[in-house]
Amino acid sequence: MTTSSQAIILFAHGARDPQWAEPFAIIKKQVQAARPDAQVELAFQDFMTPTLEAAVAQAAAQGVQRVDVVPLFMAQGGHLKQDLPRMLGKLREQHPRIEIRAMAAIGDAPEVLQAISDWVLRGAAA
Asked: Total domain count for the chain?
């Protein structure tokens, strides 16, 4: 059982091919190494497990006080505009003692976009 008061749930779309999730597993490992005081989990919208609902339920069962949902999506599509707010509302009703927050999608972060642009430019310069 964890003694963490915070869970960070990395929320990705999911795919039928298990290899698709490998980069997200690396992100999870890196975040967990940087934040050993937090419970870090992956959750998926479709095709893969655990779901966001299951990941939040697990965090709640382990006594966390706050859950930060981090959408690992490049753009604000239907999942983030409609599905995620609906899911978060339901989760807040199911777990009223837990503060559940959602960060912006990674594609909305200027530093992520800059890192991608820099990577493209380094590769194109070769």
From this structure: 1
